[in-house]
Amino acid sequence: MVDFLFATTWLIPIYGLMGAILTLPWSLGIIRRTGPRPAAYLNILMTLLSFVHGSVAFAAVWTQGNIHLVWPWLQVADLNLTLTIDLSPISLGALEMVTGISLLVQIYALGYMEKDASLARFYGLMGLFEAALGGIAISDSLLLSYMLLEILTLSTYLLVGFWYAQPLVVTAARDAFLTKRVGDIILLMGIVALSSYGEGLDFSQLETWAESSTLPPLAAALLGLSLIAGPTGKCAQFPLNLWLDEAMEGPNPAGIMRNSVVVSAGAYVLIKLQPVFTLSPISEDVLILLGTMTAIGASLMAIAQIDIKRTMSHSTSAYLGLVFIAVGLGQVDIAFLLLFTHAVAKALLFMSLGSIILTTSNQNITEMGGLWSRMPATTTGYLVGAAGLITLFPLGEFWTMRRWLNGTWDVPLWLLGVIVIVNILNAMNLTRVFRLVFLGKPQAKTRRAPEVQWPMALPLVMMTVITIIAAIVPMQWPFWLSPYPPLDVASNAIAPWALPILMASGGIGILIGLKLNLQRTTARPTQVYLRFFQDLFAYDFYVERLYKITVVNGVAALSQIAVWFDRYIVDGVVNLVGLATIFGGSTLKYNASGQSQFYILTILLGVGALLWLIFTGQWTLVTEFWSTLGKSV
Amino acid sequence: MLSALVWIPVVGAIAILLLPQARAAQWARSIALGVAGVALLLTLILSFEFDPAAVAPQFAERIPWIEPLGLNYTLGMDGLAFPLIWLNSVLTLVAIFATRIDIERPRLYYPLILFLSTGAAGAFLAQNLLLFFLFYEIEIVPLYFLIAIWGGGRRGYAAMKFLIYTAVSGILVLTAFLGLVWASGAKTFDYEPLLQQHLPIDLQLILLITLLLGVFIKIPIFPFHTWLPDAHVEASTAVSVLLAGVLLKLGTYALIKFGVGLFFQAWVILAPGLAILATISALYGAFSAIAQQDMKKVVAYSSIAHMAYILLAASASTPLSMTAAIFQMVSHGLISALLFLLVGVVYKKTGTRDVHVLQGLLNPERGLPITGSLMIVGVMASAGLPGMVGFIAEFMVFRSTFPIFTVATLLCLVGTGLTAVYFLLMINRVFFGRLPDALATIPKVAFRDHLPSFVLTVLLIIFGLQPSWVVRWSETQATNFVVSPALRQTEIYSAPALAIPLPSLTP
Predict the structure, then answer these.
(1) For residue B157, what are the domain limits?
(2) Most CB within 10 Å of its CB: which of A188, A475, B246, B364?
(3) Cβ contact (<8 Å) for B420 and A556?
(4) Is the ipTM of this structure higher than 0.95?
């Protein structure tokens, strides 16, 4: 039985897809009598199935060894496309993570989306989401991963655009799709190139190819950059970071998925592509640069936000920035641990935020306060999630950072600086939000705020427990990807005092957050320089304006030029020719005078010319011309 | 067998023409549907007998017709024609089904649609250059009337523009054919013997350029494209489906069959220029589509952009790129047909296609939610979303051209990215947002209005998941074009075609 289940593990993503398809009768309005609930139950059942199936497989893979499945997909001429699936502890672990969080989120959504008429459509999209994510988890082929990432882009678009009647949602969905699409197209360029150079698009094949590749440096650098572009969009890294912030207009349960596992999917592919980045130092440097910019920049943006979801979404970009840095340094095991601990903690945080939003029907944190006594489970969830995100003993991030800084890996001083800054800023931001939302006096919108009902409370509490025990993973299994322990840099000078510094920085961040002068009514500071920085962060460093000036205006201008050219030049010439023809016709009509003498004269002239041609031997010239053409071969 | 495929629609058309006036309204549609169904069935039967591994045209028929002219009635089906015949049979049925039931003058309308189908099938199957030309020209006539009689407000202008453009296209193609046959001294216009022609290369270049100018009008490639948006905007839904899905393919069919097939030496010389032209056309179509206000114009310009990929693939002239070109034809045929059908539904129900007037049509109660959902699927397929046929077709195109025309390929990939931009802008304006009161009284859409779209959507997804079901029919033939007997003897055929060098960064 276990063997059978293990051998059919590749079916798990298809469960999600089946769930999505099964919702169609309800979302298309074919079944109306039952209401949309059965669709939701069906999807939860399918997810439960995939979770159970995945758990059995996950348990089995440790003893049974990896399985490598190859499907030949398309074979034409010199193109041979295969779709490959790899069942290993790491891929099944990722799958377990996806199905687990998806299961909790879907139960959570039962409560959160209770009053929504389009519940069936929501669950259909969640099923699609889960299927694509599960597929990415077990895919071992860049092509398959790319295809699934695109499906993910589509389902993000549809989920963000779920409440499509609201104007902000419309732009948010559009921006989410187009921003990711920019990254994806550049990634596709890289895939096309890799497929032309390499022997195959499987990650393992790419690894062996990268070891022996003789690509010129420029091509290698461009290739690396194009492969980075896709995950940059997916993981909301600078300069493709703003969509995640805007995407907060979508339903919150989808937001939980997006901020924990969906952004991680991009980084997961990035981790698998790491061998290709070793081809070019430029691509590694760019990874580190982008990661650093985003990690610090996004953390700064977060502290000026007053929308409860946006305060957290920027920190998602920041933590994934750390993952980018780790991949750029080639420390993929750390990247993987970071992804894991961040995803768990962030899912919990967003569940907690969702409870607040549903109960208070409000997302503005300056209008909140005093929720701690009214919503104990939510408060606990927030605290545990926040503690799991900053380096606080004994939660996940602490153990992950310990793995990173204990001397096993080469950690340069600047990196420690970056981590410390990110840690301070995030600790500060989380404390700030905590004070505004949970402490202080209750305000108008938070006065009557009961704890959420059980479909939301149960997953919230379960996620809290999971976050606490998730610390086992970085404690027990530090090496997921490297077959051998990496270089032992025990002599690394910063190793002994790096972790204490980091922990102290968390404490400092919390202290700053506690001391911060928070004004609820007017959140505008009076000092000019503070206002300047607040605006700078609140408007995301004006990156949006940057987009507008460069890409958006550029495309708009080019399209206007094209249309103008089309209408006045291309069509103008055509119409001019038409006009000339009509003019010529009108002139020639004077030939049709109606006098038979004139017609006879014309005919005689024509026949005369013909006779002259034939009798003087001119005609043969015409025929000979064609035959010489033939003979000259 | 093949003759039946060509002439059954004509028989049906004559039958409808002979219907008594009183019965016409009821029977014309059923007869047309029946005839198209029979043609589809016949295509299916042929598929069982068709051998994708064979090189020579199959089910060949040859009847001497006007021998002194070299015009013979020669039909045969090869791997290039096979998928296009399928496209023609399916889309003819779809177009007839998608026609309004209460169409005016059904006794004329349905025969014209059937004649159109005959023209296309005949051109795809003809193995004689003059016969091809005859069908290529014949098909203009019914289309002219279909636009001029059942079209929209500026139908006269659009139909005349279409007529003049395509007539010029026909003349250029004919000139190239005549020049080829007379100069090579061949006795007939049959296709097979002409493969052995040995014209001097400069004459070949002249003839090829003449031919290309002709087919570029038909495809259409920038700057010969302006007839297409006008024709699409004025044509009715069914006619747009056939125009985009089948008739444009006549151009690319001629491009590959005659351009690559007969003039390969000259083709290889022109190829870099063609790749640049394809890139310009793709980007130009995409940028123009962004600024359009009329949904149909958006789809029409997107059609121009996507047809350019076929030229790009053909210019790379490797076995893979030829297969990709054929696949892209099928892909574009299905996707653009679906998009035109859906725009047609929106137009029929709301009376407008203006993206600034339409809004919030996804509204589940009073809007067009299913049309909107299918539209999203179609648009995503066009933007190259994996899981649908657009992705793998374009992937094959780009993968095959990348080693040869690197920069052109990358720019065309940008064009693919722009597809998402213009279609998403359209979707966002038309389907998202709040349904305004002015649109709150949209009539319900019957299931039969959506049936053709559902069928096409299913096909899109099936071929997207199983591309080999399309590709395997044409692979041998596509390879044969670039390794045909005519060029094995020549020396010019060497490096650019088969060897895949490491790409340089210049085209």
Answers:
(1) 2-498
(2) B246
(3) no
(4) no
